[in-house]
């Protein structure tokens, strides 16, 4: 197996730079703390996914 240079990414929570390697068990975060902060933000609904409108013929009056 060849050794490659790991990618360096910014932690999505704190912005610290971290190596994207298999040894980094918290990736893409720099630590367990940042991973839990991000999980808490999702639980508090600080992040949302855009709502998609669903068009259904039953509601448009077509049969």
Secondary structure class reads alpha+beta
Head-to-tail CA distance between termini: 61 Å
What is the strand content?
5-15%
The CATH class label is Alpha Beta
Question: How many discrete domains?
Answer: 1
**Biggest beta sheet attributes:** 2 strands, antiparallel
Question: Order of helices and strands, N to C?
Answer: EEHH
Q: Can you give the mean pLDDT? A: 85
Shape: elongated
Q: CATH homologous superfamily, by name?
A: Erythroid Transcription Factor GATA-1, subunit A
Number of helices: 2
In the sheet with the most strands, the strands line up as 1-2
Oligomeric composition of the shown chains: single chain
Ordered list of secondary-structure elements with their pairings:
Elements: E1 7-10, E2 17-20, H1 32-43, H2 57-60
Antiparallel strand pairs: 1-2
Can you tell me about this structure?
The structure is a single chain. The chain is α+β, with helices and mostly antiparallel strands and 63 residues long. The protein has one domain: Erythroid Transcription Factor GATA-1, Chain A (2-Layer Sandwich). The mean pLDDT is 85. The chain starts with 6 loop residues before the first strand and ends with a helix. It has a two-stranded antiparallel ribbon.
